[in-house]
Design a protein that fits this description.
It is a single chain. The protein is an alpha/beta fold and 410 residues long. It folds into two domains: 106 residues, Aldehyde Oxidoreductase, domain 3 (Alpha-Beta Complex); 243 residues, Rossmann fold, CATH 3.40.50.2300. The protein contains 14 helices and 16 strands. Strands 8-7-9-10-11-15-16 form a seven-stranded mixed β-sheet, with helices on both faces. Helix 9 links the parallel strand 9 and strand 10. Helix 6 crosses helix 7. The longest helix is centred in the last third of the chain and has 20 residues. The radius of gyration is 28 Å and the shape is globular.
């Protein structure tokens, strides 16, 4: 590797301020644009008047919701096509002029009349008053979760937290503490655990949250340990999970508390090693060891071994296989690659490709499937023998959030 710096021919021009950038190159007839932003955070645009701006030097044109409706939907016009105001500073018009400064001055002169509405500050309010915007970028928008083009082969937070929670809350006690990654993954998992916990009358001792990418939990784990929980739910993923479990082991938390996680992945278990994960209970969608229960699993394992030098499939390997095979099966059944025909064929599938029976729920295209509750092993028969299946939630739509709660009309 060379230690010599690469010669940057443009460096002198840049540091002396004499470099010419693309935006500075004049083009005949080129106009500059500036956005007109709304001063309120929630309401409706009543009118947009360009009269004051039209007399300014260089003004060329203005596009607001009235004119944008006649334009091809695009990312540039997505928000200004609407009268509805969703946030302060939302673009409601676009002004063009001969120069950038003239465009900015013209945008400032546009007269906007708005009608304010009470702001929506909670998820419950938003779901109750959900509506479809005119467009999102180039595509028609959907206000409900899930759309006709998307099928979800993987587990979702409600499925996995429900399965793990039902097992753990019935066996290890009612006093529960949470260590939660402070983003959507963590929030959704906590909601799932709390929902299933109602049936067991669990007592939540605390929920300490941490940012994604945390590398030191030494100030958080003693606080959780002091709560003396029967169960500690560590709700994060990947590197965060590996570090948290290693440090929880070092603090001796496992001696008095059962640690559970919503998702135990083969990749994380292998990366962190057996000691960090020893005794930890979690959920997963697939484990090669269920081949004694399902012929489809055994056939999948054997085919995988032949193709990959005797290796066994992991959870995510099986997920990828299942997702691709459902699409290919649907194309075959439909006898066509026409999108609508393939969608209809996928919706009709009742399949058992690698882990037992599955099908897609109609309203949101979530795969209705089993959830394996697994426990990490210390003593392994081979490099893939990292988990023990201790319980199974069989496929049941009752284990999913209802279609109505997800915003789908009956």
């Amino acid at each position: 590797m060379s230690t010599d710096s690469a010669l940057r021919y443009e460096a002198a021009l840049k540091v002396t301020g004499s470099a010419v950038f693309e935006v500075e190159v004049p083009v005949a007839g080129m106009l500059h644009a500036a956005l007109v932003e709304t001063p309120i955070s929630c309401g409706d645009v009543v009118s947009v008047d360009a009269t004051p701006a039209s007399t300014l030097p260089g003004f060329a044109a203005m596009v607001s919701h009235g004119e944008a409706e006649a334009l091809q939907p695009s990312a540039a016009t997505a928000l200004i096509r609407e009268r509805a105001i969703h946030f302060a500073g939302q673009p409601v018009a676009l002004v063009t002029a001969s120069t950038w400064l003239e465009a900015r001055l013209a945008a400032g002169a546009i007269r906007i009349v708005t009608r304010a509405r009470p702001a929506v500050t909670g998820m419950a309010q938003a779901l109750e008053k959900a509506f479809a915007p005119a467009a999102v970028g180039r595509f028609a928008a959907e206000s409900q979760r899930g759309d006709k083009y998307t099928f979800h082969e993987a587990l979702n937070p409600h499925l996995t937290s429900g399965a793990v929670g039902r097992y753990a809350f019935s066996k290890f006690g009612k006093k529960v503490a949470f260590l939660t990654a402070d983003y959507a993954y963590g929030h959704e998992m906590v909601r799932g655990f709390l929902e299933v916990g109602k049936a067991f009358n669990i007592e939540v001792l605390g929920d300490i949250r941490h940012p994604i990418g945390t590398s030191d939990f030494s100030t958080l784990l003693p606080r959780l340990q002091a709560m003396k929980p029967d169960i500690l739910c560590i709700i994060n993923f990947g590197r965060d999970q590996q570090i948290a479990l290693k440090q929880a082991t070092d603090f001796g938390i496992k001696k008095t508390t059962q640690i559970i996680v919503p998702v135990l992945s083969h990749a994380s278990r292998v990366a962190a090693g057996p000691q960090a994960f020893e005794g930890v209970i979690g959920g997963c969608s697939f484990y090669w060891g269920i081949e004694d229960k399902f012929a489809s699993t055994k056939a999948f394992n054997e085919a995988f071994r032949k193709m990959y030098d005797g290796k066994l499939p992991t959870d995510y390997g099986a997920l990828g296989y299942g997702g691709v095979r459902t699409v290919l099966s649907a194309v075959k059944n439909a006898g066509s690659v026409d999108t609508d025909k393939v969608i209809a064929a996928v919706e009709e599938l009742k399949y058992d490709y690698y882990k037992g029976p599955q099908y897609y729920r109609k309203c949101d295209h979530q795969s209705v499937q089993s959830v394996l509750v697994i426990k990490s092993k210390k003593d392994m028969k081979n490099e893939s023998d990292v988990f023990e299946v201790i319980s199974t939630d069989e496929p049941n739509e009752a284990n999913l959030r209802t279609c109505a709660k997800l915003g789908h009309k009956a």
